[in-house]
Amino acid sequence: MAPFDYARARSTAERLIAKFGQVGAIRRMTASGPSYDPTLTPVDYPCTLVDLDIDERTIDGTLIMRGDRMVYLSTAGLGIVPELSDKVMIGDVEHAVVSVQPLQPAGTVVMWQIIARK
Predict the structure, then answer these.
(1) Which residue of 56, 88, 94, 114 has the smallest Cβ count within 10 Å?
(2) How many domains are contained in the chain?
């Protein structure tokens, strides 16, 4: 039996997110200048994402709250690994990253699953 081709699954995820998703950005603050008085500047990393409502049954009032968004983020063209300190730009609206998890079977990141909050 041939092993499962996770690279093909990644390509499929990238294609579906591109087809049904939208252009967005991961916004990361970068520091420049002296360490004792750094200047923080936002840098946007373009990405393709799918923005979804979160199922009412999963809202627990602590990690997931009413109004949070489920974001599926494509790996295509993404030059960074999303972090909790980043922001997700959905349209022109900035959302905080509450949770970020890779869908990563056998070490291949197929896509990123992010819970975002206004």
Answers:
(1) 56
(2) 1
Q: Which two tokens stand for residue 12?
A: 């499929």
CA atoms of 32 and 98, how far apart (whole Å): 26
Structure confidence by residue, pLDDT tens digits, 9-35: 999 999 999 999 999 999 999 999 998
> The whole model's pTM is what?
0.89
Nearest residue to 18 (alpha-carbon basis) of 74, 71, 69, 70? 74
Q: Is residue 81 part of a domain?
A: yes
Strands (E), the chain: 22-32, 39-53, 69-73, 87-90, 93-103, 111-117
On whether the CB atoms of residues 66 and 107 are closer than 8 A, the answer is no
